[in-house]
Amino acid sequence: MEPDKIVCARKESPLVIGIGENAMFCASDIPALLPFTNKVVVLHDGEIAVITRNDLRVKSVEGYERAPEFLVINWPPELAEKGGYPHFMLKEIVEQPLAMRNTLRISETYLKLMASIIDNADHLILTGSGTSYHACLAGTYMLSYLAKKPSRALISSELPDTLGDSIGEGSIVLAISQSGETADTLSAIRYVKERGSKVLGITNVIGSSITRLSEVYVCTQAGPEIGVAATKTFTTQLITLALLSCHTGLINGSLTRSEFNHLMGLLEEIPRHAEQVIEVSQKSLAGIVKRYSKYSNFYFLGRGVSVPTALEGALKLKEISYVHAEGYPAGESKHGPIALIDDSFPCVFIAPPDRTRSKIIGNVMEMKARGSKIFSVIGDGDEELKSLSDDVITMPNGIPEAFTPILYVIPLQLFAYQLSVELGRDPDKPRNLAKSVTVM
């Protein structure tokens, strides 16, 4: 027996070793270690760590030893604490403006490098799972609007079966994962790399598997996210995609330098707008949530770049409130979903003042005519949509169409959070879910 020795091994699922003073720690995720140390070693897949109180040895399963690579995580321990909030999820929603500001400071060197690779891609595919897939979908709109770059978003678990052998050396895959350890996304990365495609990565965790498998990667600066439901990691992914899209547009001439500078200035204003949205939404939703807590089904509807926002709003509601919700493009209503609508089936519309506004008004009217209660997230001063809706949250104007998902998702996060609390759920620990999905 060796009571002062721990042996641990990594096979696919993440494993992190924390280096403390006269102590060592093991965990599956970095935030769990922050109360004890900010110095960590991330094991690679197939490695074994032999740990004593003051020593760490890392070996491969074949017995080859390597020097541990120490990472210092610049996340203050208090970020992994509730800090007076009733739940981590609410704290992390409120932290979004700061997380956005930090993410806007991502190194331009890496953004420009990634943008040049994206611009030269024959085929560009964005892939992720869950909320990260919704970020990918929003990214396809951003790249189209800002850089005139066509792309497609694929759910990671579906990527191999969708693409088959059609992917190759001319393809670029941009993989997004908040943890950098999502099993389906890592499997998709390995699949495309085996066929000669280059991989770019966006993650929130330095040293994660996605950073080692990507040719180039950037880390969002959301800080630790403890709540299972992604909030600030989603909006910082969107900020990163907006930055990449603007840089790609500048490189390929879709944006002039003047247009680029103007958009970057507007993007810098997003965190300030987010602060206002959080304040207004929290106050407005208090009464709204009580009225909607009796319903068992919801549709979340949007058009254009608001479709990913609708999907994300529905996902947030179902995963933490256990209330059935579906998100889909509003134009599809008449092709089947409208058959379910009556006075017991409310609809949430994401309706910014963009190119789709006139059409979304028609969708609101057709749902209202069938008895649905309408809750809309709209631009400030949109009296027509306000009059057609039973309840509204108003958003600041002057936001470029491509950037609207960053702000318009926040009221939906708060709606899901407050409804979860109203129903007596624990939004931080939804049943059957885990923060980092490391199984396939």
Fold and architecture overview:
- It holds the Pfam family SIS.
- Keywords: Aminotransferase, Repeat, Transferase.
- This protein is of the alpha/beta class.
- It has 3 domains: 6-77, no CATH class; 88-255, Rossmann fold, CATH 3.40.50; 289-422, Glucose-6-phosphate isomerase like protein, domain 1 (Rossmann fold).
- It contains 13 helices and 18 strands.
- The strands form 4 sheets. Strands 10-9-11-12-13 form a 5-stranded parallel beta sheet, sandwiched between helices.
- The two termini are 36 Å apart.
- The model has no long low-confidence stretch (mean pLDDT 92).
Question: What keywords describe this structure?
Answer:
single chain; 440 residues; alpha/beta; Rossmann fold; 5-stranded parallel β-sheet; 13 helices; SIS_dom_sf; aminotransferase; repeat; glutamine-fructose-6-phosphate transaminase (isomerizing) activity; Glutamine--fructose-6-phosphate transaminase (Isomerizing)
Number of helices: 13
How would the global form be characterised? globular
**Top-tier CATH class of the largest domain:** Alpha Beta
Q: Which parts are unreliable, with pLDDT below 50 for 5 consecutive residues or more?
A: none
Distance between the termini: 36 Å
Would you tell me which CATH topology of the largest domain applies? Rossmann fold
Mean pLDDT: 92
The rounded Rg comes to: 22 Å
**Main sheet strand line-up:** 10-9-11-12-13
- According to CATH, the homologous superfamily of the largest domain is Glucose-6-phosphate isomerase like protein, domain 1
Number of strands: 18
Q: Into which percentage range does the β-strand content fall?
A: 15-25%
What is the share of helical residues? 25-40%
CATH architecture of the largest domain: 3-Layer(aba) Sandwich
Q: What kind of sheet is the major sheet?
A: 5 strands, parallel
Query: Number of folding domains?
Result: 3
